[in-house]
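Q: For a teaching session next week I want to show students how multiple molecules come together into a single three-dimensional assembly. I've collected the sequence lines for a complex. Could you give me the predicted structure tokens for the whole thing so I can convert them for display?
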Amino acid sequence: MPKTPVSFNLNGVETSLFVDGGQNLLDALRRGVGDLTPKFGCNQGTCGACTVLINGRPLLSCLVLASSAEGDSIVTAAGLADGPNLHPLQRAFMDGFAAQCGYCTPGMLLAAKALLDRNPNPAREDVAEAISGNLCRCTGYAPIIEAILAAAEVMRRSSRT
Amino acid sequence: MNSVEFRKELFAEERADNLSEIGRPTVRQDILGHVTGRSAYYDDHLFDGLLHMRCVRSPHHHARIRSVDFSAAERMEGVRRIVGPADVPKNLNTLLSLINFGKEDEPLLSERKTSYRGEPVLAVIADTERQARGGGPRRARGSVANGDRRRRPPAAAVRVDWEPLPHVLDVEEALAPGAPTVNETYPGNAFEYHGRYDHQKLRFGDVDKGFSEADRIVEGRYRMSPIEQAPIETCGAIAAPETGDRYVCYTSTQALFFSLSTTAKLLDTASSRLHFVGGTVGGGFGGKVDSIVEPMAVLGAMLTGRPVKFMWDREEEMQVGAPRGAELWIIKDGVAADGRILARSFTGYFDSGAYTRLSSYAVVKSTGHLPGPYTIPNVASNVFCVFTNRTPATAMRGFGITGVDYAIECQMDRVAEAVGMNPVELRILNAYRDGDMKAHRRVAKNTALIECCQVAAQKAGWQLSPDALRQSSKEGGGGRRSAIPETATDQVGRIGERRRSQLPAEPLAGPGPRGRVPAGTAGPATEAAPPQRPDMAMDWEREKSPAAALPEPARPSISPPPRIPASGISAASASAASPQAAEAPYAPKAPFSRGVSKPGVSRFLSGTRRR
Amino acid sequence: MVEVLEFETLAQAAASLRDRTVYLGGGTLVMRAVNYADPGIARLAVTSDPSIKAIRSEGGRVSIGSGATMSDILASRDLDFLWPVARRIGGPAIRNMATVGGNLFAPHPFGDFAAALLALDARLSLADGSDIDLEALLARRKSMGSLVARVGFERPANGEFRFRKMSRVKPKGVSVISVAARLPRPGRRVSGARISFCGMGQTPVRARAAESALEGRALEPQGIAGALAGAAGLSPPDDAIASSWYRREVAPVLLRRLLLDEAE
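A: Of course. Below is the structure for the complete assembly, covering every listed component.
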């Protein structure tokens, strides 16, 4: 069966590859492109470890048909930092001890980014809601929520200046 | 006092107070990798030509394998190799064999029978994961041979002819006479401690005497269900041939050298041929020590000469990933009207599932924890590691302790209710104090339970009497409370008294007296059994026990251990003597080398920090 | 490997459904099956038909395209009464993918949105041009030969539609059960109530005994007693989320909270 060519913008870089018929975007990003930041957790849309932003919205890459990403703009955790400068969310996760094993972290960061891009001043409940599809088994939800709120504040301050 | 002061005051002798990290924020050394997504977990290693391995699993709780036909699957597109039991060089193992504990009881791939749902019988290695899945039944349920006609690719099935067997899923039923034998290595459905006993025993004082002196008897049964660790990263490993006839293995293991040694053993190869890389684990919680995936991946790489990934999907993680096992605890307390607990007995059951894994160790660990952080003059326990047709259980966060602590603390509340006491004050009254003798014959140090109760009550706004608030863990302990009392089932009150196994002569030999030895009523006293090893002998002088003053034989004879006389078997079991009784006593092949080495103290000194 | 068939219209996609060809909508159910190599899927039919995402509100009638996602519902001011339902389905990422049409076919214990549509007496337009009641579709959804194009129903009056969901995990979690109701009250007494449950059967189901017990009653503790008793007659399945017994016990509790408008 022939492979399908697909092109999308990944973290600002035009990317093209060939994908298999039923291949999901998670597998295409990891094995096809070599971006290993989206994680495999369940392959059934339950855990959120494979969360990526597609055209600015959080989606579960394990449930997206890779061939359907044609022309899309995709952001993964690999695209958060600006060169050597961490994104405020990454900095806040670091400072606030918001990761233990780190496996859910890329998905959490993207779910959080989707929230802050839309709502720069979220309430605690908004943050909890935004990461409600992302499971953390080391059970660090409280520091994760704190870190997202802290990052939001940093981003608000820097946008004012 | 805040919690840091609290620790400093109570544990002042434990370590020098010149640490600069505790109590202030620090940045984890691995967190930069985590927040940038660069931390490399086992699956974050890409290989050209990677093959995928998946298992064909049993759909039954318990079944005999009549035949396996994989000829059709072998011819399927993309399938490189079918791996069967015969491909595993040494297809029987028990995890703790690495420390000489327990008998080999679990195959990597099962050949004749399966004892839990999801037990692997074959593995398919194929070019893609989808092709590897196509080689086996879609899921564990629904036997192909039973005429399951779900649509599938034409040549997509390994055909296994199953003969379902009666199964047992409950610990008490598993120990009942006539229960099906789960694991043929242990025909009595219970782990055999030290090669001879079907449960781990603890005796301290005389619980029957304690019960007879008590004003109230309080009994309770406490059950815990299995809990899956459910790490977000599923268990798995990638193995690939390396230069120099070696194999590299990237793994999710929590116990790298344990997995390496287990792989070397199962594959009958030198560990120097294995290059294991791990340490970055996507959540483990105890569920990634069982070393199942590494031997599979390395075996696949050896058989195909290609990189092979063996990775559980989420359904496998939940179905065959070893959980914290179920537990059942039966506790009986004899309580004085003023709330003092005079006697406490336990019968405990750890549901090990179909194979031992680490539950045997959990039983020993929990026995050392009894009767909880309380000083109770008479304690007895029988704790069983039971085999059932459930998923094998393993480690999870404090296993061996968390379950029984739940039971003990529920029981404490019941006792408080029975004698009409404030439950926190009941705990303070019975709390162990510095210098008290624990039931496993160790003097308690740095107990701090009383202070914990006081601080917790204060923070919770829970009223305590002035007397309870005056108590301190550093006062009132020791003295008479440091003594090892005369112990009922043992003439001289030795540690580790063990009774003869009461297994019937053969499995399914009909109703027999095995199992269900009620705690604390163990029948006539037996001859003293010596410790297994000289270094396990109690150091009576050090512990300043009145028992040291007892006439001979105060010190156990060291070697060789005497045979247990026939009179030592309880009358009920004499007719069902096991053939194993004739076996030589357990003796490890190599000298024991664990423990502290410090002049003048027992190698098994505990409660002291090693400096 | 799975073959992907792309179609311009939903009708063309519907016409392709035979012999292990499965329609892929939002992906939350079908991609999951593809990932686990479901042998019943050899081909995926997809469409770029924009009409299936349209949400229309004309007069008293609402029409939702089967391809509208939960996020689309939450973005539609006309559908504010359905926000409490859509908001409780999945996390943000799932809501960006899961469609109204897919929810009609989601196996137990999923289907909160279908239960809500059931309480709204929804009627479905199929890709082949025919119509069918939602309840009739649920009864034979496993053997559907066509695809749902649109869902239509009368817009409920303010406060007439209510929804409650009980889940083990919050804010996101699969339903233990959920209950939806449309409670028309001309003159404070209920007339023509519709009550439906998700999680109380293999598909979302109407609680007819509870509906008729509510007829002519006021929404107060005595008035609803019969309806609560009527909710006990359903036979929910056992699963990993909850036992059948637990669901039967919880159903009247959740229904009482809904009818008396108590907090969850």
